[in-house]
## 1
Amino acid sequence: MTKDRARQLEAALREAGVRITRQRSALLRVLAACDDHPDATELHLRARDAGVAVSLATVYRTLTTLQAQGVIEKLEFRGEPARWEPADQQHHDHMIDVDTGAVIEFTNDRIERLQAEIAAEMGYEIVHHRLELYVRRRGNG
Amino acid sequence: MTKDRARQLEAALREAGVRITRQRSALLRVLAACDDHPDATELHLRARDAGVAVSLATVYRTLTTLQAQGVIEKLEFRGEPARWEPADQQHHDHMIDVDTGAVIEFTNDRIERLQAEIAAEMGYEIVHHRLELYVRRRGNG
DNA sequence: TCAACAGTTGCGATTGGGTCGCAACTGATG
DNA sequence: CATCAGTTGCGACCCAATCGCAACTGTTGA
């Protein structure tokens, strides 16, 4: 299933004029198989483990390319290297458990609407936003 | 007035066991005089301009110390060096104009409450959060 | 007032994420 | 299958930030 997704993306990218190289194909498969939020180094390792050697520089360049194509999204949490996730899901924000480092996704329409309202009131429109809740399990500590 | 504020802080810090050196005193004065969101390099320059030579390493160390004391807050916007602001103001979030780089502060109680609710629903409490709206003036572009 | 020392500073080296220049290579096209 | 613009790997490089270490200095207690 994720293999299929990777193939779909390849076709769409080729359509958009992006050359599908051995390295990009491998990274697409790695990304399609992700159910987490890996950083560039981690993706580099996973591609290697999957049997395709890709240089780290190429990992970075490919991630930038795929982001420009809207295939993946870049997450920049506080003080960590950037992480990446597939962009084909519905929009969501992130909760980061400060004790375990776990990343939990969530959505809330009311928050989305409020943000748009606030921006509008001040004469702006939202290009992009970032909401991160750094949290701790209740009753810990 | 900002001079007074800097003196107040010195007293409080000394109380907390933080040694007040020439360099820290200068940086406190620089910070108290800020009505913007400078980064470490900028603060380094401002201290120099104010007549007190402080090494960049010390600027970084002092900022870390002051943050630990709750005197200032660290802002990490996308892909920029970290910026800093006094922490004695009321809590607020940030809007960043993507065209001009301007940083606009805002607050919204409803958003604050919603965030707490969402975290609570999932069994968490918020330690810290970050909401950034990357915006563009309406009608531009 | 000052000795003592833990905490702080400046310097230059280092780390770490990420980018770049360039020569060699390779998908896509005709 | 020849062509060539786009892509890759390598190592050098960039930048923000941190660190080790020797020299220095607030603060404290006598």
## 2
Amino acid sequence: MTKTPNETTMRAWARLMKSQHLLLSRVETALKVADLPPLTWYDVLLELERAGADGLRPFELEQHLLLAQYNLSRLLDRIEKAGFIRRKAHKEDGRGQLVSITRAGSAVRRKMWPVYGSAMNEIFGDQLSGKQMAELANLLGDLIDHASAK
Amino acid sequence: MTKTPNETTMRAWARLMKSQHLLLSRVETALKVADLPPLTWYDVLLELERAGADGLRPFELEQHLLLAQYNLSRLLDRIEKAGFIRRKAHKEDGRGQLVSITRAGSAVRRKMWPVYGSAMNEIFGDQLSGKQMAELANLLGDLIDHASAK
DNA sequence: CCAATATACATGCATATGCATTTATAAATT
DNA sequence: AATTTATAAATGCATATGCATGTATATTGG
């Protein structure tokens, strides 16, 4: 054990890191150019939209989005300050709160999607065939399952 | 154009982001636990080691490592402060400098590799067959080629 | 040769992230 | 019920990143 990776593994690793970085920064740039909030905001807003009127507890968001507790806390501060979410004290659990999306939040999320989606398509979706894309998704799915199981 | 991505594309995208994040943070944690510098330091040190005694210009490193100029500038500050690299004025180009690795820098890079490599193997290399890993590398290679060509 | 422009690198300021700790409340243990 | 332990969320402080700009030198075009 603690063996050193083989060539193929190292190459795949480097490419995974590089492609993610490249693709993500393209999308972030597209959003910035369109004068829209960063991608993390989108993720939060989307989760909250799906959660419906009741909203979600921060710790639930934390799990869905794989964010550290302290990062999420501040991310919510910023999004709230922009008026896209609302935080209110939880009725049963005095420690907690419920976060929900506002009208303005929904609106901005809907405005973000075409920018996000079309960038994703252009730099990612259009570059692989349907078959290749499905393969990629499967391979990465396996990885995530294993990594998450730890 | 500006079409919205299909299901498979969105799934693959999400998994690419997630797996990278998950894997990277595992490796960073492993390094931290071993009381070693972060991964970016490794990348810099490795490049410099490969470059030989003359070292590299910062702008060359910048291209190899896909770092923003101002980020690299400060990254080099930190690494230099730790004594792992040396910066000296370039003889012909008065604007520039040459960065080279020190003994201590080589030593720490060599100490980092087993931690880095074994973590990479455990969470990544061991999770896919050789064939799968090669496929993954190919798919990601295509993506990078297209994205970089822009 | 000189003015204009481009390149190399650094830096002030704002924002984001990580770590450790704090505050408040809830749940479990005695 | 009182005490301990666990959970939810916030925050002070250090570090990292992004953006815009600054400083210095090099290159180019007149």
